[in-house]
Amino acid sequence: MRIVFYVLVSGISAVVTFGLAVLIWKLSTKYRLYPKIRERDVHTRPTPRLGGVAMFIGIVIAFAAASQVPQLSLVFAEPGKVFGLLGAALIIVLIGVADDIWDLDWLTKLAGQIIAAGILAWQGVQISTLPIGGQTIVSPYISLTITVLAVVLVMNAINFIDGLDGLVAGVALIANSVFFIYSYLLQANAQTEYFNLASLTSAVLIGACVGFLPLNFHPAKLFMGDAGALLVGLLMASSAILVTGQIDPGIVAQPDVFTAYFLPAFIPILLPFAVLVIPLLDFGLAVIRRLRAGKSPFTADRKHLHHRLLDMGHSHLHAVLIFYGWTLVVSVGCLGYMFMPWYWATLLIAVGLIICTVVTLSPLSKRKALESAAQSTEARAESEAVARFDGLDAASEDLDEEHIETKEQPA
Description:
By secondary structure, the protein is mainly alpha-helical. It has helices spanning 3-30, 51-66, 79-102, 106-122, 140-160, 167-188, 197-216, 225-244, 255-275, 277-292, 305-312, 316-335, 342-389, 391-408, and strands at 129-131, 135-137.
């Protein structure tokens, strides 16, 4: 029943986030605290974008409540990591709010992200072990650099897909649920402590997403803005980094348990990429596209994956659900390797990807059918028009009419 304490903390995060989100929405609507619609925006009416503030406060209060639960005291045995995580989150939220209000240049935002990631790594939340071929310990400088790069990458990848109602909150909800299940399974296998910062971070973020999603789902009343998207990315990266340190990588070197724990040892590396496959793909394509055009990688445009889905003919809601489907198939499929033989898990992923591909491309077949029908209709209309105004046909019709009139005249 240890999971009850995680559910309790997650519930606190959800309730506080929802209440504050409603308050921020009402105040922002009353005092018109929302920016003008930009050319790349999908929404058609001005919408407040300070929802990230509600998420941040909900997360902080949930951590504060967790610190008062005796069963979760082990998480706070290393307070530096907790304060480092919350301090980095505060910096990210401040940068995000400033960008939502004043539209900061990309260099300033990047500098703030690097500072936040640096504080996170400085307080001990960093990639120091890799479960490959036994325990691998990298040097402190390499660890710091890799951690900062990974955190900044994930934050921007999440921020890049924040273009549709409920997209980031829903994707983060699915991804962190998978992360929480995985970390809890590690606990059940006695590879780590039942209560740890990785699981608590995932649980608290799940609650924040649940509390925010009702106001953010289509049609959205409130956006999380850069503050919320960067915050979600920071916490997702942090939980992934913390998960990699939960198991003893040296266990894979023991022949008698190699088979049982081989995949669990690699899932901390595979799972972050699995749950972030869509954001990372969109981020990579955007960077390549902008660099080829001679622009900054952080230059905004309207060519993200969610924009392309809309251009293909999907509705706003369908596009969001497609993102949910891709994330669910890849992340749950990757987690399936812990529950079933590898060939069944691979088959599950393959079937899911095929279904997602068919649903994603379905508007193209519908559009092709409509275009074909339209072209055939236009061709028929054009042939009828040509026949109607053809000179020989007209003359033939005149002769036929004269012949009929002649036959009808009395002798």
